[in-house]
């Protein structure tokens, strides 16, 4: 499933307006086997009120990878495109964020030194 269009969210309490385009959803084993879905692609969540932007990369499942499935990683940048937070987790269980303390490496391949990670979101199973 390749979604079209842009999603919008506006908070009445502070008038912050966010937009993003959804990533690709792939349904596996439609013919035979247990059905399961995966998300893949890049997503930019933009705050049009203050110019901040979150760039997320949804890592597709790979049979040959040792990484966990459903992995998400990314960064949050201020209006000046300076990375302020690092984001990591899985799209179906939890997301953690950590403040960026310093940056090294090249502009094409930056390395971020971060503070401790904080839980930003966690799935809560229905009772």
CATH top level class name? Mainly Beta
Q: What name is given to the CATH topology?
A: Porin
Q: Which structural class fits the helix and strand makeup?
A: mainly beta
User: What would the average pLDDT be, to the nearest integer?
Assistant: 95
Helical content, roughly?
under 10%
Low-confidence stretches: none
Anisotropy-based shape: globular
- Report the end-to-end length measured between terminal Cα atoms: 30 Å
Q: Any guess at the CATH architecture? A: Beta Barrel
The topology string of helices and strands comes to EEEEEEEEEE
Beta-strand content: over 45%
Written account of the structure:
With 127 residues, the protein is mainly beta. The protein has one domain: Beta Barrel (Porin), CATH 2.40.160.120. 0% of the residues lie in helices and 54% in strands. The protein is built from no helices and 10 strands. The protein has strands spanning 7-10, 17-20, 24-28, 36-47, 53-58, 71-77, 83-90, 94-105, 110-114, 118-122. Strands 1, 2, 3, 4, 5, 6, 7, 8, 9 and 10 form a 10-stranded antiparallel sheet that branches. Strand 4 and strand 5 (53-58) form a beta hairpin. It is globular and about 50 Å long. The two termini are 30 Å apart. One of its GO terms (molecular function) is sterol binding. This is Oxysterol-binding protein. Belongs to the OSBP family. One of its GO terms (cellular component) is plasma membrane. It comes from Bracon brevicornis.
């Amino acid at each position: 499933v390749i979604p079209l269009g842009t999603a919008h969210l506006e908070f009445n309490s502070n008038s912050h307006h966010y937009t993003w385009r959804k990533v690709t959803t792939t349904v596996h084993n439609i013919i035979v086997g247990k059905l399961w879905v995966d998300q893949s692609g890049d997503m930019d969540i933009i705050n049009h009120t203050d110019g901040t932007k979150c760039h997320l990369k949804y890592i597709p499942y790979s049979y040959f990878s040792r990484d966990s499935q459903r992995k998400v990683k990314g960064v949050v940048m201020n209006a000046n495109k300076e990375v302020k937070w690092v984001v990591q987790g899985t799209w179906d269980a939890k997301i953690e964020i950590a403040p960026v303390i310093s940056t090294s490496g090249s502009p094409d391949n930056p390395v971020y030194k971060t503070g401790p990670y904080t839980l930003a979101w966690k799935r809560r199973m229905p009772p």
